[in-house]
Amino acid sequence: MFGSKHPKLEVVIGAESVFKGEMTAKGTIRIDGSFEGNIVADCVILGESGTVVGDVQVSVLIAGGKLRGNIKAGDHVEIQSKGEVYGDIYALRLMVAEGAVFEGRSSMQKNREIEYRPAEVALS
Which percentage of the chain shows pLDDT scores above 90? Predict the structure, then answer.
């Protein structure tokens, strides 16, 4: 799952964890618990037990759980069969599996790049 297709796994929010706030990360964030706030990362993988309430700005988003918020993806968004997305999606490519739920608008902008910028993490 984390070969050359996805950047290095940097953050894991476990199934019994709750996070509230903003998160910016280089690499991949995997969410199996609850996340409330906005996310900027290279890749977000939302597991089947994961929930996100907030906006997500990424290169790639794979949604197997529930997300309420808008998504800006520089490459693609994949909503898996048990995934649910409630919000607008701006991406170059959108994949929605049979059984998935998507309520919102989608804009696939091939002629211009989506406003995704890799995360700049300040180390202090």
Answer: 78
Helical H runs in the chain?
A: none
* φ/ψ of residue 35, rounded to 5: -130, 125
φ, ψ for residue 28, nearest 5 deg: -105, 140
Which structural domain range is residue 42 located in?
A: 9-108
The answer, as to whether pTM is greater than 0.90, is no
The single-letter DSSP state of residue 48 is T
Cα 100–Cα 45–Cα 101 angle in degrees, nearest 5? 15
Say how many domains are in the chain.
1
**Structure-token match 């690499």, residue found:** 27
Does 104 map to a domain? yes
pLDDT digit string (tens) for 66-78? Answer: 999 999 999 999 9
Strand pairing report for 9-13 and 34-36? unpaired
Write out the H or E segment, with its range, that includes residue 53: strand 51-53
User: Under a CB-based contact definition with an 8 Å cutoff, are residues 42 and 60 in contact?
Assistant: yes
